[in-house]
Amino acid sequence: MAKTNTLKHLAIIMDGNGRWAKRRGRVRTKGHEMGAEVVRDITTYCAKHESIETLTLYAFSTENWKRPKMEVTFLMKLLDNYLKNELDTYMRLDTRFETAGDLEPFSNKLKQTIADTKKATKDNKSLVQVLALNYGSRNEIVRAANRVISEKQELTEESLSNALDTPYSDIDLMIRTSGEQRLSNFLLWQLSYSEMFFTDTLWPDFSPVELEEIISSFQNRDRKFGGI
Ligand code: IPE
Ligand code: IPE
Ligand code: MG
């Protein structure tokens, strides 16, 4: 019998901005700029998709601070501008903005923009877009475990899951662009039974058309969850 898997939670490692720019003889930051446009296109697709409830996007890892200061500063500014410029889009798409990761090291200005965007979009219902910012899965798990302990709860799969930055449904499908086949510290706990899809397309070239093809292939996969 043909199976159709339901896609509720999609996660994407948006990789390849630097290589995209390099291939065109442009500076790496140009790739990030184009990548931000694709974030808007993919979010739009997901907000309109009938079953997708949550879209988690890896935007900045706990390891990305190792990059040149100029690139890090550019990414922070790009994020600030994106959130301000796209507020109308979030509202039009009925999309709530959330984050995962430790926001503490960010500037007060950026923290304020993040808080303002969360507040303005908090009642939106069609989609939750979670941006993983200064996100590392090991860091998230340790913070969650400490939270459970400090609240004097018993440490169980359920209490730990609920204490994560990402207390959403399990991830059904994880896509990484740019041909790399690794997790780079992304959602180690939440990806336990996720289907994985790796595409060679660089993030600035990724499109709703390709996403739709990947979703079709996901829908036909045999998800067994340990059963037969
Ligand atoms: C992903 O693209 C964006 C971030 C990590 C912020 P990269 O910047 O990692 O692009 P490549 O991997 O160098 O091509
Ligand atoms: C992972 O990409 C982080 C984001 C996409 C934000 P990286 O480009 O930083 O990962 P590595 O260094 O290739 O593993
Ligand atoms: Mg990369």
Entry summary:
This protein has helices spanning 17-23, 28-48, 69-85, 87-92, 108-121, 137-150, 157-163, 208-219; strands spanning 9-13, 54-58, 95-100, 127-132, 173-176, 195-198. Helices cover 43% and strands 13% of the residues. The protein has a six-stranded parallel β-sheet with strand order 3-4-2-1-5-6.
Per-chain topology:
Layout: E1 9-13, H1 17-23, H2 28-48, E2 54-58, H3 69-85, H4 87-92, E3 95-100, H5 108-121, E4 127-132, H6 137-150, H7 157-163, E5 173-176, E6 195-198, H8 208-219
Parallel strand pairs: 1-2, 1-5, 2-4, 3-4, 5-6
Bound molecules: 3-methylbut-3-enyl trihydrogen diphosphate (2 copies) and magnesium ion.
Please provide a written account of the structure.
- The mean pLDDT is 96.
- The protein is globular.
- With 228 residues, it is an alpha/beta fold.
- It contains 8 helices and 6 strands.
- Helix 5 links the parallel strand 3 (95-100) and strand 4 (127-132).
- The protein is 43% helix and 13% strand.
- It has a 6-stranded parallel beta sheet.
- The protein binds 3-methylbut-3-enyl trihydrogen diphosphate (2 copies) and magnesium ion.
- One 3-methylbut-3-enyl trihydrogen diphosphate is lined by residues 14-19, 60, 64, 75, 178.
Q: How would you describe this structure in keywords?
A:
single chain, globular, 6 strands, 228 residues, alpha/beta, 6-stranded parallel beta sheet, binds 3-methylbut-3-enyl trihydrogen diphosphate
